[in-house]
Amino acid sequence: MKPAADKRLGNYALLLALLAAVVASFRFLGIDPGALVGGDSLSQMGRYAGSFFNPDFSAPHLRAIGHGALETLAMSAIGTLLAALLGLLLALPAAGRFGWLALSGSRLLLNALRAIPELVWAALVVLAAGLGPNAGTLALALHTTGVLGRLFAETLENTPNEPAEAIRLSGGGHVAAFCYGTLPTVWPQLIAYSLYRWENNIRMASVLGFVGAGGLGQMLYVSLSLFQEAQAATVILAMLTLVLGVDAFSGWARQRWVSA
Amino acid sequence: MSISLSGVGLTHANGQVALSEIDLQVKLGERVAIIGPSGAGKTSLLRLLASNLQPSSGQIQLLGQQPWQLGARQRQQLRARIGLIHQAPPLPPRQRVVTAVLAGKLGQWSLGKSLLNLLHPLDMPGARAALSRLDLADKLFERCDQLSGGQLQRVGIARVLYQAPELILADEPVSAMDPVLAGHTLSVLNEEVSRRGMTLLASLHAVELALAHFPRIIGVREGRIVFDLPPEAIGASALDALYANELLPAVPASATPAPVSVQIPRC
Amino acid sequence: MLNPALRDPAALPRLALTLLAVLLLWPGLALSELNLAVLFDERNATNMGRFLADFWPLAHDREFLRLLGRATLETLAIATAGMALALLIAIPGALLASRALSLSAVHRSGRPAWWARALRWPVRGLLIVLRSVPEIVWALLFVRAVGLGPTAGVLAIAITYSGMLGKVYAEIFESVDPRPSRALLIAGSPRLAAFAYGILPNAAAEMLSYTVYRWECAIRASVVMGFVGAGGLGQQIDLSMRMFAGGQVASMLLTFLLLVLLADQLSRLLRARLL
Which of A171, A252, B113, C83 is deepest in the core (most CB within 10 A)? Predict the structure, then answer.
């Protein structure tokens, strides 16, 4: 019984340490939870929130939002698609198909791509390539390549090699062996991961506009900076609709095509 | 000469000796069965002949060429002329039977044609013909994970038939089938091979099937060839010696003729 | 045997799917204005090159390092405080939204009555809305509401992550073995007790694992939110970028990468320890 008791003592100590960390965080930031929700602060926030409850639904604004929404959707979809292709390309060496050197190199590249957040990528790409949705698409593609590449590599490592080897043994080339032997098995996983990342990217695409990468994010930033809360409210509603729509589609697609 | 092995030995990476001093000559158009106890080296021998494994010693010649003296590209071209039927068919579960069969000719198709075939099967009649020889024509568009073990093995055989190689190597091709179906399938395979002038080497663990269908039997034990005889010349004592020390006390009797009328298999 | 014309049953759906893909790809490429060439364009390359050249030497004077240390601690504090607040909302939210504690489900082998499901819908809906608006949008709003600084970041994380944690907790409650809690509910125990004794022991490990994983995400989110003025490392990076102080930006990016690495290791350690 002793090890179990030790473990429980350790868990309590850990819990205490976590609580201490939380309290320390609040004090370090100088946030007094009481002041946060007390009197003046709440009413101030309430007033600000209230200004959003009269969204602007005028036709020209809705048209602009429609265009922004399509731009954001396109950014996220094309960016994810590009990342899936590049990720698969990099996943092959990363899974060890081309030797140790290629493995280390590609893994390093994939880790670098995914460690840098999309927003930082967007800022860099805007600097290099200018404002607009292209920067957003590229930024999403670069970051997501790192994420998907690593996931794809893990999937490839767990896939049996025999079908592809059998094709090589009957004279087939490397590409044909991969497409006929390995791809049929990993295909559903690849699609599932890509759809899952698309759900994340539609949220990020909305946001990249803050650094000038186009879409709904840029509209939101502009309207908030000009204190046009009514217009901003419509943009937020549009963002919400996009996110919910993509989530629903991705869930449906994954269930229909992938779980088999 | 289709196959020529002289003094061939094979040692695995872990030091285990799989084959030693193998001398084997197989002429064009011959049909040979390889029998022996489990672990005797039958699969190693077939993989060696498929140029999957490189011999540790000795000379090997396949279809008039020495596979390990060739460049990689030429070896691939040689491999396209040799068909290996695997004991466990290497078919991706989600792949459709038609694609799995058509994959037999990947060694002969260009890359563009191979990729196009993935989208839409380019030679459905050809695949169907190969499958109908094995009574599986109705499974053309099913997925491989919807087939039974015996059906999967037959798809593997159909794939090699579609490949139309000059040399067929079969590693326990009927192990997952019931005796009637196994006999029928072996008859079909032998018919096809004779009709098209191919050479066939098959390893079997059911001795009756080997004795019934093949005019030349090679017995392998502990990595060596023990005998190389026509079935009439093999007596019960030779088989006893071959399979000695196995867990089973009984030994199959000498050759009985195959049943003349065979029901169409249902499986 | 007759040889009827062979038709691939998958041909029509594949054709339709390909057509659909092409129809969607064309406007998609147009709207996203995808142009990979810009990354390799010479002029842009010199721009980027000059920007990256500024990164060296890394800023390492004492004044700056103190600022860096404080900003890093601030980011950690924002993430931790935000998660704490998020838990305050998420746990009650999950308890309310989960079907695992439904009394009507007990007698229907797990499926609650229609009115029980309807009552849970507003809570589920709220959790979905909270997590569907990107946290940086919340950060932007809170910066406008309560001013620049870490408070906005804490509130933004609290709100978004309460939605995420709440939804996942509810799903975890529904995925564990329902029999212990159902037995307790049938015997008449109050719902909270049924939860504590029936569901919590089995669900705790998974809940903790996911919470630690989310804390790690919160750290990255805090940095990103800093770009819109919510304090921490991100705000400092934004300021340094505006001042074109490349060396400072480089040091801070490096610190960020190290921070993420450390958080990843800590998270793995905690999850291995707790599971």
Answer: C83
